[in-house]
């Protein structure tokens, strides 16, 4: 039976940076997957589509260090999932102005909860890594909560084009040396029972629904952040690991708000924001497996 880390060891983990695992290669690949389409938006003057691009670029985060064939298949699956999420979010954003504000807010929460449960089942059944539903929920709810700037089908096409780029970069990553002998592939779908998938759906759906309701009732300007925070912990195995990840997330989020406030305290042009976004994405991927709180800065 595995030993549970002591509270002191968990606190020490906040201050410890794990050894590097050729992190610069996937970090660079993921950052490039964001930089290229964002540069296209700047050149074409369509920076309002940045949200669709950003969430499509999350595809590159999946299947880190995995063999080429497994990464190709799983990034295609992850990218398809994210494209659907962006499309759903854009459809809700188009529908929301025609509804009373309270009803549209609850619609975003309910859709986010459904996506949380459904994407958790999808991720688990296909052995995708990172596990959980944080990226699908974030993509759906954020797009749904933002003003609609394009028809839902255009939003989906933009996300899909970025997904294709990230999958291509994923193929090139292995040749650049992105591999690690300690990588553990996720379980294949045939190893997961229906009961496990049902429990997974229920956990994520209830957590996202309750958290979103609390966020909405508390008057948060963006209640979906409560949903994102709730589902982020569920992917960790065991109660202790979830608490540890929650503490990391709390510390990282607070420090991240400070960093963001500092960066936005100066007058900036759109291209400068893009540069900061790409740079911070690179740094986040450099540390995400080494110290979670630092990666959230």
TrEMBL record:
Residue intervals of the Integral membrane bound transporter domain: 211-295
Main location: membrane
Membrane listed as a keyword: yes
GO cellular component: membrane
Superkingdom of origin organism: Bacteria
Positions of transmembrane segments: 77-97, 103-123, 152-172, 204-226, 246-266, 273-292
Topology of this chain in the membrane: Multi-pass membrane protein
Signal sequence, renumbered to the chain: none
InterPro entries xrefs: Memb_transporter_dom
Localization terms from the record: Membrane
Pfam families: FUSC_2
Keywords for the protein's UniProt record, in alphabetical order: Membrane, Transmembrane, Transmembrane helix
Full protein name: FUSC family protein
């Amino acid at each position: 039976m595995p030993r549970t880390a002591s509270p002191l060891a968990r606190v020490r983990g906040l201050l410890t940076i794990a050894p590097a695992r050729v992190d610069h290669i996937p970090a660079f690949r993921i950052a490039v997957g964001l930089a290229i389409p964002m540069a296209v938006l700047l050149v074409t003057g369509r920076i309002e589509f940045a949200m669709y691009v950003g969430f499509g670029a999350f595809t590159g985060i999946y299947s880190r260090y995995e063999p080429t064939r497994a990464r190709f298949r799983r990034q295609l699956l992850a990218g398809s999932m994210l494209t659907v999420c962006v499309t759903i979010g854009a459809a809700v954003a188009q529908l929301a102005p025609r509804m009373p504000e309270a009803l549209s807010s609850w619609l975003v929460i309910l859709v986010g909860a459904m996506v949380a449960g459904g994407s958790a089942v999808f991720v688990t059944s296909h052995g995708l890594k990172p596990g959980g539903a944080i990226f699908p929920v974030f993509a759906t709810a954020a797009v749904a909560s933002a003003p609609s700037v394009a028809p839902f089908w255009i939003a989906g096409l933009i996300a899909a084009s970025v997904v294709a780029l990230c999958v291509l970069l994923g193929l090139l990553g292995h040749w650049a040396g992105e591999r690690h002998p300690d990588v553990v592939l996720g379980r294949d779908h045939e190893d997961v029972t229906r009961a496990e998938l049902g429990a997974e759906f229920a956990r994520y759906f209830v957590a996202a629904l309750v958290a979103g309701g609390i966020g909405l009732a508390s008057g948060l300007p963006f209640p979906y952040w409560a949903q994102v925070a709730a589902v982020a912990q569920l992917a960790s195995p065991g109660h202790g690991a979830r608490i540890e990840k929650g503490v990391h997330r709390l510390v990282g989020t607070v420090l991240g708000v400070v960093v963001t406030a500092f960066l936005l305290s100066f007058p900036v042009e759109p291209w400068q924001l893009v540069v900061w976004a790409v740079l911070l994405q690179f740094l986040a991927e450099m540390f995400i497996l080494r110290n979670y709180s630092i990666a959230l800065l």
